[in-house]
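@channel sequence for tomorrow's demo:
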Amino acid sequence: MTGRTRLDEILERLKAVQQEFEQEVDKVLDEKRQQFNYKLHRGRVIFKRNVRRWQRQQRTGLLRYLSRAPLAFILSAPVIYGMIIPLVFLDLTVTLYQHICFRIYGVPRVCRNDYLFIDRHYLPYLNLIEKINCVYCGYGNGLIEYSREVIARTEQFWCPIKHVRRTPDPHHRTAKFFDYGDADAWREKLEKVRRDWE
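structure tokens (generated this afternoon):
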């Protein structure tokens, strides 16, 4: 496996497009901040006072919210909220794992705070149940992203080989992995890939 392949060129263009996309997302977020009259100050959202008051008026009261909810939604709540137990267990074990093992392997640790954003409960137009739901979903999805990155770094260190078939949503680190069946690359370049955390 020598020289640049067409796939390498496409990946390079994809990275450039990804950077352009990120810049465009930042512009759109700035426009949304202006449109919805808020700003970020030290990581906290600050709405204009009149906007906050208007948003509070849009909140659905708890009794009204519960009376309109389908019975199946209410009855399924313990199943949904029961998932907090395995989620917290996952959080604790993944964090403990990376703090022990990544130090041993020399793998840079994943910053948990880069993935877990709990902020939607500050929105004045959400009632208490909606706020709890938003905290729960923000935590759960952020935790899965964080865990995925920890596991992706583990895979990059121990087994950076592409699967014979492509999965529907492979993590971004698989682009660095060796082709399935490329024994030469495995033997000659494993240490290089193990240290490429860019």
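heads up for whoever presents: The longest strand covers residues 38-41.
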